[in-house]
């Protein structure tokens, strides 16, 4: 593989089945990769057993296959990569950047989202004992200040906007920011295309990569698909799961959502034909930059639903 060949990824957490909102993200990152003759990897972000729904990882894999969203190479499971994350944590600790934070939930709540660094004074005690509480990283200085989102054109903010952030949770689980940043670098991801709800995570991930002396990918964020209640469609608000018999209609809908105008006759074709058309007509410039509410869902197949 050429060192800088476009490599994209889709990285769902197995907290429930895929829905229209996650399909838009998967299709956008798939088409952007394929339109650049790139690879597209699948990473299951199953590092949080407390939020995981049993069977969701396998269901997501089947849903992607039913929509002909074919990934390259083996599926990466974060639950099997603990050694990589521990190594990254050790390097950050050796650089004197980590400290244990034992602030109570009430105190953190009262701070209103920006951590004030109260436990920083305990920075030196880390080497002598197992951390009591979560591990935070000192988030001063540079990060993604000069980087721009390749979909939205906006610059990312400073990494420390929310203060020092958590890299290892108090329950011993690796934090999303660390695992994702490490995996994007380790998997050679050149382009991250994901939902706009993760825009604010980007400076923190870039900051971690800079501290680990790893290069950041380019980041682009697609606007969120909002339900009729104005909230992000999500597994948490029980957005309907994608079903295999609606795959063509779902993809047609997702392409339109992303600003493309696929011909009506493809509505009766195979999912792969729609994706091939989408790859040929893909344009980042056509993606709207504001979140929008779903007005009309795909014309669902009235026949028997085939679950995947
Ligand atoms: N696992 C995250 C999610 O399902 C996405 C992570 C990412 O794309 O960086 O929301």
Q: CA-to-CA gap between the ends?
A: 33 Å
SSE sequence, one letter per element: EHEHEHEHEEHEHEEHHE
Please give the count of helices. 8
What is the name of the CATH superfamily? HUPs
**How much strand content do the residues show?**
5-15%
Bound molecules: glutamic acid
Class from secondary-structure proportions: alpha/beta
In round numbers, the mean pLDDT is: 90
Taking pLDDT < 50 over at least 5 consecutive residues as the criterion, the unreliable ranges are: none
Number of strands: 10
CATH class: Alpha Beta
Coarse morphology: elongated
Rg from C-alpha positions? 20 Å
Strand order of the largest sheet: 1-2-3
CATH fold descriptor: Rossmann fold
Total discrete domains: 1
Largest sheet: 3 strands, parallel
Helix percentage = 25-40%
> If classified by CATH, what would the architecture be?
3-Layer(aba) Sandwich
